[in-house]
Design a protein that fits this description.
The protein is of the alpha/beta class. The chain has nine helices and ten strands. The strands form two sheets. It has a six-stranded mixed β-sheet, with helices on both faces. The radius of gyration is 19 Å and the shape is globular. About 35% of the residues are buried.
Length: about 250
């Protein structure tokens, strides 16, 4: 379980007069997420999604508030927590001269996974993410969609219980995206907790049990896709989001 309690993250930026100004990328964020669910973190670019996920993964420390994983704190149990989670960053680079298999074995060693267990886990991930055809090819030869599947699998080689995924399908074609979404839904059925950040509202509507809409660092709505649409008298999350922020969209 992930519990986020009144979390703030403060940064400093320069204004037009080149003066330092404090601002909150995330502002009083609170929610709880339990195993066996997919929780979508939804919002436009710059809403605070990536900052929030980095705090969940222990990469950033909140300015105020608390993040706990299974009632454990990063301040006292960082290594224990990181064995329980997988974190997919949106800008991770892979080792081009390795094959996916070699990369997975290297990651397994890092997580102290037994070699035989690692080989079994690689077979499972390769089958579920449809990587068999390129498992032994050099990473530099892979397509964008293939590389993203490798990126996801290398985070999960130690079979964690919690997945924290930042824009997992961004920039991918419809086939590559669907392979990843199908994988995520199957992992949920195994009892995993998946935190899924995206700005694709339709994608979230398809896979998420609960969604947390963020705009300008604040939660503006939380609930299931059905309950949000019922509350706002909308038929989809895209319309619901724009109704919440009261912005007109120019489609020209």
């Amino acid at each position: 379980m992930i519990k986020v309690e009144n979390v703030y993250k403060e940064f400093i930026k320069s204004d037009k007069n080149n003066k330092n100004v404090k601002f909150y990328a995330d502002d009083d964020i609170s929610f709880t997420a339990k195993e066996g669910t997919i929780v979508g973190i939804l919002g436009p670019n710059g809403a605070g999604k990536t900052t929030l996920l980095r705090m969940l993964a222990g990469i950033l420390e909140p300015t105020k508030g608390n993040v706990t994983i299974d009632d454990l704190s990063y301040k006292t149990s960082e290594l224990d927590i990181k064995k329980r989670i997988a974190y997919l960053s949106g800008n991770t680079k892979l080792y081009n001269h390795l094959s996916p298999y070699e990369l997975f074995m290297m990651c397994a060693e890092f997580y102290e996974v037994d070699k035989n267990q690692a080989k079994k886990r690689i077979q499972e991930l390769s089958s579920e993410l449809k990587m068999d055809a390129f498992l032994y090819n050099r990473i530099e030869k892979l397509s964008t969609g293939q590389m993203q599947r490798v990126n996801i699998a290398r985070c999960m080689i130690h079979d964690p219980k919690i997945y924290i995924l930042d824009e997992a399908t961004s920039g991918l074609d419809i086939i590559a995206s669907q392979i990843i979404l199908d994988f995520i839904k199957k992992e949920k059925e195994k009892g995993k907790l998946i935190i899924y950040s995206t700005h694709y509202m339709e994608e979230a509507e398809n896979i998420c049990d609960n969604v947390i809409m963020i705009n300008k660092g604040k939660i503006i709505k939380e609930g299931s896709p059905v309950s949000i649409n019922n509350d706002l008298n909308t038929t989809n999350l895209r319309d619901a989001f724009f109704k919440l922020i009261k912005e007109e969209v120019n489609y020209e």
